[in-house]
Amino acid sequence: MPGLIEGVSLGKGMGGPLISAIRAVDVIVIIVDLSVDPLKDLELILRELEAKGLRINKKVPNIEIQKLPTGGIEIIGENFLVECNSQDVKKVLQEERVHNAIITIKEPVTLTDIFEVLDSSLEYKKAIIVGTKGDLPGSKEGLQKLESNVTNFKIIPVSAINNVNLDILPAEIFSILDIIRVYTRSPGGQIDNEAMPMKINSTALDAAKKVHKNLYKNFKFARVWGESAKFDGQRVGPEHVLRDGDIIEIHI
User: Fold this and answer.
1) I want to staple 240 with a disulfide (CB 3.0 to 4.6 A). Which of 55, 108, 232, 236 is the partner?
2) All domains of the chain, ordered by start, with CATH?
3) How far is residue 231 CA from its own chain's centroid?
4) Residue 103 in this model has a pLDDT that exceeds 90
């Protein structure tokens, strides 16, 4: 994917296709050069993405809006409103042509949060920051500047020349996605080199189902090696919860 430049939200630098590609991903890896003001680059990237309706490492406000045919506007949870009141909220809703609805607010929110919940074009994406060129002069100071000013991102400093932290990137990305990697092993002992991605808290039976429907239907037990096992080759039942990096051998 090409680099994101200033003005991409206005169409510069393959703006349209680039933003569309970013919208399609599950996690964004923001790459900044630690040796040349990474905080400035990060702020530019976030500003451009924000302008195109992408909210990075922010959660959707916990507000439910149930539109109704009649009855006006009812607000439940007014005590959670911050720096605004129910009349302000009703005004915003009416401006957005919502005249009959039950609004349930479950956490402290501002008027901006109300606007964002009403805006169906907004998308919320998870992201991590990868700081490159950690071997160059000034990179240590750049990393410190990032860590001092950025609190809601995982920051991973890397160096291709010194081979620093390159091996942990896949695990970090899987973790953000709430996905674990499970390897299958045949009863003869051959381990598949390609990991099988699974949702966090998946069980041995879930793994069997993903491998083949016959293994799922005829599952008897499994043997597991890895973090979830008390010892290598532990015999487990269908409800055994797997962990990242586990190796599973399914028996029917």
Assistant:
1) 236
2) 8-53+123-176 (3.40.50.300), 63-118 (no CATH), 179-251 (3.10.20.30)
3) 32
4) yes
